Amino acid sequence: MGAAGMTPARPIIEARAIHKHFGALHVLRGVDFTVEERQLVFVIGPSGSGKSTLLRCLNRLEEPSSGSIIVDGIDMLDARTDINKARQRIGMVFQSFNLYPHMTALGNVMLALRKVQGLDKAEAEARAQRALDRVHLADRADHYPNQLSGGQQQRVAIARSIALEPRVMLFDEPTSALDPELVGGVLAVMRELREDGMTMVVVSHEMSFARAAADRVVFMADGEILEQGPPAEIFSAPRHERLRAFISQVERH
Fold first, then answer.
1. Could you report the per-residue pLDDT of 149-182, keeping only the tens digit for each?
2. Are 135 and 156 in contact (CB under 8 A)?
């Protein structure tokens, strides 16, 4: 069979008909969400639209009420799936950095490698050092979190994730807790990761970053995906009334 007859590879993330209820609240209403390998997919929408909940369902930090989620060939909702093992393939970076204050930057990155992947000290240290290098903090390895800016702490948190060599990275509002002048350094690191071929899903309000770096932008409102497409289309020719309103509101700020 020639290249023309080949079936396209299945997406690295394939979520189908995801519903999530919190009591009477119907937060996700049958969301279908796929991500191809090496794509940067940006999820935007008003607060309360279900963006973060969707992200947290992908690695089972939240339990979907129904639907199916396959990540890198693993059925995330199968009771037999070793969820901790599966999560090693899915890096996650949160709004808060969640670093251990009594450990250096290097120590924070090493911890997961030793605990989760059982590496010996020398190997963990080498890999942690490489990860810090990738986020441009090699010279801050022996600094404690309180000696680092918020942006540097967030980059340590990114290093901690990429040290585990995940197949996919999820970012939940990674810059929203940062002072504006520190946002650029974090976004630059994210852009480099994408250029290195990392598959990424980003929930964020950084619209100029979405325009510049995303392969696809997904607009959510009221627990549903209302529109998605390349950034040029989403920002320049939005079809849905809710999306038009959202963009004009965001651009004013």
1. 999 999 999 999 999 999 999 999 999 999 999 9
2. yes
Whether 32 and 66 have beta carbons less than 8 Å apart is answered as no
The letter for the amino acid at 8 is P
Strand order through the sheet with 13-22: 25-35, 13-22, 66-71, 74-75
In this structure, what are the phi and psi dihedrals at residue 227, rounded to the nearest 5 degrees?
-160, 145
> What is the pTM (predicted TM-score) of this model?
0.93
At residue 53, what are phi and psi to the nearest 5 degrees? -65, -40
Strand runs labelled E in 11-88: 13-22, 25-35, 40-44, 66-71, 74-75
Structure-block tokens of residue 172: 């939940």
Q: Which positions of the chain have pLDDT values less than 70?
A: 1-8, 253
